Give the backbone structure.
Amino acid sequence: RTSHSLKDCVKMGTLTLSLAILAPGNALLPMRARRLAPARVSMDYMNPTAGGNMGGPAASTKSQILTESPSGKKQDFLEASPYWDQATVPVNTWKNKSPYTAKVVSCKRIVGPEATGETCHIIFDHKGEMPYWEGQSYGVLPPGTNPKNGKPHTVRLYSIASSRYGDDMSGQTSSLCVRRATYWDPEMGKEDPAKKGVCSNYLCDSKPGDDCKMTGPSGKVMLMPEENSKTDYIMVATGTGIAPYRGFIRRLFTETTPAGEAYQGTAWLFLGVANSDALLYDEEWQAVLAKHPDNFKLDYALSREQSNSKGGKMYIQDKVEEYADDIFKRLENGAVMYFCGLKGMMPGIQDMLRGVCAKKNIDYDEFIAKLKKAGQWRVEVY
């Protein structure tokens, strides 16, 4: 099972927004300032308390990404009873033969000019008719037929990149984070359009008002077990594998949800990308870190800008290894560890963990088997 597109490789990106918008009151958040590059489009962030937004006069309400809950309002109208009970998680509400037709609200490039590829954040209006939980996926049915067999294109799965309430917290929108998959032909000396990713290009080329046939939601592997409010969540991602974690973090820290109000654990995010221009949702993470320093941790692995302890490139497994003792202790205390992104990340992660286990005189296979049995080891790669 894949977390994003079954046939397209998806990727990574970063957002740019005004620091003042995310800061309630008149205090500026200690974020890393980053110049708005011409190739990067700003997101429609809005602080409902301050009343400011970055979308400009053309931004629709549903395209706005709220940075906190509106004053006096809670996001508690799409909850189970009790909120952590997963018995009613929606699964396959809409199927391939009878998909839901959602409307594209906005599609924006969210990476800088030096990123290795293009990544877009796409918001859809589902009118509340396609509910989902954080960690689930949608299927997308691109229009047209497969030239190889003349049949309609098959469904591609993408992890949902918003909480169940959506970026505008209305419960009527959802978001996807998609990397445009292209193929560079060395013999042609240019991209070969015949080999581009069908679905990722369809999504990244979408415009507000476009129809999009979708299936799902699907999957329970990446759900958050919320019954114990002290559970630590260790989230490891490469590129657009960040998508489900964005839903987690907004639910726990950005929105006023029952889960967020009760949460006493630590959510620790590891993101691996090529360089700073390829970071995804950096400003959102910096804002959460500033407001919740005791409950949120953030670490990046920038392979083209950082070096690991051995002098080589800093990959995601190298960054995780730096905190091996802390992570193992948290796992022993019940933490849940997630992995989402390109499947190529897992061999390096596994080799690193084997080495750490050897140093600690722990049997790696038994250790991982125990974690899996307890629901503490959750993998969704593509």
User: Anything to note?
Assistant: Confidence is low (pLDDT under 50) at residues 1-38, 53-59. Residues 44 and 164 are 19 Å apart (CA to CA). The longest strand covers residues 100-109. The radius of gyration is 20 Å.
